[in-house]
Each structure stands twice: as structure tokens, then as C-alpha cells.
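It is worth pausing here to work through a concrete case rather than discussing structure prediction in the abstract. The textbook approach is simple: state the sequence, then state the predicted structure, then interpret. We follow exactly that order.
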Amino acid sequence: MTTQSFRPSGRPKHKFGAIPCERDGKKFPSKLERRYYDKLQILQKAGEVLFFLRQISFDLPGKVRYVCDFQVFYSNGEIGFIDTKGKDTALSQTKRKMVEDLYPITIEIVSKV
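Step two, the predicted structure:
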């Protein structure tokens, strides 16, 4: 039998220790993802990023989905896909490889901001 630990708020702790947070009325599953959001906003104000989208979903065979944290549209015409990962699990790596095999994209993993 497994035991689940809880935060003082009564909510269960994330299995990898991620701490949910908020910025600009948007909820983020981790501080890392929020920090990357902050970084993208700075790059947008500087003109290096035109705009960005959050939580981009990719459908995979077998009714499986991969959700990428950010799709970034840079001012030089490039488009990037960024996923923030404090811990990059084998399952995440497998799903990401499937996405990259099915779609003409590469997903960049960010583990520090």
C-alpha cells in the first residue's frame, strides 16, 4: 500500500516535487514552467519573440497525447517547441520521440531557467 503525502493546503504533493503556481492569472504546474513563461515575456518585450502559445497538444497513436509547454514564434521567422522538465522520464522521452517522428518538429527540453 502506498502512502500519499499532502501539502499544508490539503492538496497532494506532486510526484516529482513540482510546486504549482500562478502568474498573470494563469496557472502553472511548476515554478520552472512559470519562470520560462516569464523569460518568454521578456523576450517578447525585447522583440525577439512575436508571441507564444501554451500547452500545445499532439495526438499520438493509441489515443495517447503529448502536451508541450510552449510553442514560440520568433521574430526571425523560426518556430520553437519547448518543454520544461525538472525530471525527464522514460515515458516522456518515448512520447517526445513519437511526436518528433510523426511531426516535422524538434522539441527542446529546458530543465533550468
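Step three, interpretation. The CA atoms of residues 51 and 73 lie 6 Å apart. Helices lie at 31-45, 90-102.
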